[in-house]
Fold these 3 entries.
Entry 1:
Amino acid sequence: MNPIRVILQRLAPAALLLALIADLGAVAPPADEGKARIAAGRARFDQLCVSCHGEHGAGVAGSGSGASYGPKLTARSDLAEDKIRDRIIHGKHGDKAMPPWGTVLESTEIEQLVAYVKRLAATPGGQSTGPLAPFDLNDETRINAGKRRFAKTCAGYCHGFEGIGGRAPDFKGRTDLPAEMAYETIYKGRQGADVMPPWGAAFTEEQIWELVAYLQYLGKQQP
Ligand code: HEC
């Protein structure tokens, strides 16, 4: 027999083992990947599901009436992962119907929704589930990316350089701006005495979180 072939045959089980080990590594995703999946699921939930299930899955006020009512999804220890996945894929017929998404969404998109709804279900009742940063907000690279974006897009017109002395409140030394709130404000904008435009369509989720990381960093500086 061809000697190279013999060597390859001897190596085959080892290669198989290596492939298996690599596979096992893929089964347990790093924490950041899990967070990114939940964040992506949340973005999609905001587009497709809030009309019936309410913001952050909290349910819709005046529940029980109208066709577009879905049950609340927070504090639902009865909602197992399999059931969540099954409902999203197949929906449910009835006078209050849950539309099926299995033919509309890719399986990765469905898994992102499952991850987010699972998180909602594990959230105690009444407590709103804010968005979740897909990376560590103290990461210096992210803070610097946010700083560059802030200098380019936000400073000058409304917010001052390094967030001081613009038409908006200073950011340095601010402790009353939780990360989730900052994220929501950048994402949706805000209508106060002045108008803060929404950036949700212009920036990706990650870019917004980098801005939040920078604002959190500024909040820790001396005013
Ligand atoms: C048109 C309104 C509507 C939309 C949009 C909608 N749902 Fe639903 N959803 C429902 C209704 C109604 C039910 C309850 C169905 C039943 O069990 O009778 C439901 C049930 C569910 C359940 C199971 C909850 C339970 O108590 O058993 C999950 C999970 C769920 N929806 C997730 C989603 C997700 C994720 C999206 C977005 C991709 C979505 N829904 C969009 C109306 C909606």
Entry 2:
Amino acid sequence: MKIIKKLCAVALLVAMPAVAIASGAAVHLDTAPVNLQDTASLQRGAKLFTSRCLACHSAVSMRYNRLGDIGMSEEQIKVDLQLPEDVKVGSTMMATMDANSAKLAFGVTPPDLSVISRSRSADWLYGYLRGFHIDSTRPSGWNNTVFPGVAMPHVMADLQGEQELESHEGHGAGKLVLKTPGSLTPVAYDAAVADLTNYLVFMGEPAKMVRYQLGWIVLGFLSLMFLLVYALKKEIWKDIH
Ligand code: HEC
């Protein structure tokens, strides 16, 4: 009997985190249209990332010249991304603001974003970057439906405009409504965030592109070997049959 009780306790402990995760996932997440073959989208994402995010966040596992993998020349990296004079194309992506000042300003240190697409998912990022809404009760004036109580201000509000959360009593989490338009239409803003999400996924695993190419090379090699071996087999057996 004792052993059964123990087993039940263990089963409960194992199931607890699953229950906790399931109950936390109340917000619906749209599927991020990630396409790592689309280098134009990845390049637009890289531009948004360096101009809009590196002020506070770093990406220490990412070197600028790695952007060669998405088709950017050294000249493009320097000019299009407006690299400051003292930053070399071989440098890693450092935040402009130092961690201590950021902590003072926001109360939390903005985390490094190198592998954020692996700790959060692409869908989460796509939802998060479109989920900001004004909230006067927050120190920054902003809140987020995907990350409630977030300390990050909406750094792309000029593009998206200002959303408000319209809550209907007893009807779930409420609906985001665009109150003040930004410089982009909602469709164009979603496309820009898709590019940025695409880039964050690429950055989480830049070697993925190389692996894709390697996969095709390996398949090509195997097909060639098959033809050769097949021809050889025919040659060897032709006198016996
Ligand atoms: C003005 C400073 C600032 C800028 C610019 C900024 N962020 Fe943030 N970001 C923060 C802070 C602070 C946090 C921590 C929020 C918290 O934990 O409450 C954060 C958190 C995040 C998180 C959540 C990380 C996690 O898993 O907890 C993501 C993702 C993120 N930022 C992405 C971005 C992207 C993408 C950009 C560029 C479009 C950007 N941020 C620009 C300050 C900034």
Entry 3:
Amino acid sequence: MKTIWLIGAFAFVALTTNAVAEDIDAGKTLYTANCQKCHGANGQGGIGKKLIGDASKWEFAAFKNAVLNGLDDEGHKLKQPMPLFGKLGLTDPKGKVPDDTDLQNIFAYVKTLSGKKG
Ligand code: HEC
């Protein structure tokens, strides 16, 4: 069952990825409001893990799963205080569960970051 679900998820992503034009500015707005305090302005990490060079290179499906469900690319539970955005919704816009467009935009923005400290 899990395998079928995974294949389905990847097929869905493969079908939709090219159709979505990522909006890096929108991603920046969301990242700054919801992720930066823990992952740093450059994605360098802090309270949260460094995103650059690791999660920034994951498949979109894995990134999405981490943000919504708090699981890493190997299915391990992420440590607190990584919020379960799929349950709690975003800080800003408050309570909104990020949709695929939001997540694509955040992911696209994260990929532009340098990972430099400070
Ligand atoms: C309150 C702090 C906090 C906020 C806010 C937060 N995170 Fe996290 N995040 C964490 C922590 C802590 C971890 C590391 C958990 C671990 O080591 O298992 C993490 C892990 C991750 C991972 C997995 C990294 C890896 O290599 O395993 C991703 C992806 C991620 N966060 C993305 C985001 C995104 C995108 C946002 C904003 C929408 C966000 N996080 C907001 C604290 C936070």
